[in-house]
Amino acid sequence: MKKLLILGSTGSIGVQALDVVRSGSEHEVVGLAAQRSWERLLEQARALGVGRVALTDVDAAARAAESWTEGQVLGGPEGLARLIVESEADLVLNGLIGSAGLGPTVTALGEGIDVALANKESLVVGGELVMKLAEATGANVIPVDSEHSALFQLLRSEAPGAVERLVLTASGGPFRGRDAESLRDVTAAEALAHPTWEMGGKITIASATLMNKGLELIEAHHLFGFPYERIAVVVHPQSIVHAVVHLNDGASLAHLGYPDMRVPISYALHYPERADVALETLDLAGVGSLTFEAPDLETFRCLGLARDAAAAGGTGPCILNAANEFAGHAFLGERLTFLDIPRVIEGTLDAIEPQPVRQFEDLYDADAEARERAGQLAARLAVTI
Question: Considering just the CA atoms, what is the radius of gyration of the chain in Å?
Fold first, then answer.
């Protein structure tokens, strides 16, 4: 059996991963981790017979340790790192949210452990160093995002020189087709009402702004080694086509399926094999039609800002990600309007000059500086709400 460690087990990806694990007999879960949801984490541990868990929030870890006497609770980033190093896992599924997932990815890869990566910020923030580390230790980085999993599968059988272009699809989010004026007073509840995917709050807001697709663009660049000018984004409201590759002979290959994260999760957990997933097979006649359109870069400016940060390189994507995390959280807390999100991100990018990345500490410094600057910009904008 493959020994599996799940980080972010109480979140959307983690819960669906546990569904996949329960449906088969190929995995032994040797550890679970979350950020703050200690009660749910302990429920999972008891149900699976897991004897060791970690919580990155120290207070949550202390409360869990008081409540759980039949196992061990590790706390803080150091406790999470210890869980990874001492787990003897064959595979770490990193489903943590935000830049907090970078450290665990680095720890796992540094130990030579394969990583099923659902934490896109690991590559957005530290992509070049992360991929170099994986190459150095021989560990695999297996993407879990639906679009990147699709590309990963499509590219497996193609020679590198045969692929001309990668295409990431975007649902367009809940505000597709609307102009900026109509988005002036939208609420967090409206932004969280995604039309096709069920995701956590941070990712759903990023989907509404199209920043999520900008982050995925950067992620694809690092995963597959393609220059940014050869990675396109197209809006596809039905979310049936997850990715497309254009080949040098004029052919194009597409990965299709109903929007369900258990498909890419299962592929990552069982790679390089496939396993049965209890899902309905795609009925094209039932779907009826598939439509595509170019993204509206004027209204949804975050996608363009992501391309700009990617082109700047160095700490540019790290600054972008930190500002986006701050602005999205402020919008959810009703401290910024929806249209303030790109304003904060753009202002932060303009204020901080990207620097070369030589070590992981450079990224943590850039992240802290970007959050501080984003906070200053947000405080000014909040006066006008």
Answer: 20
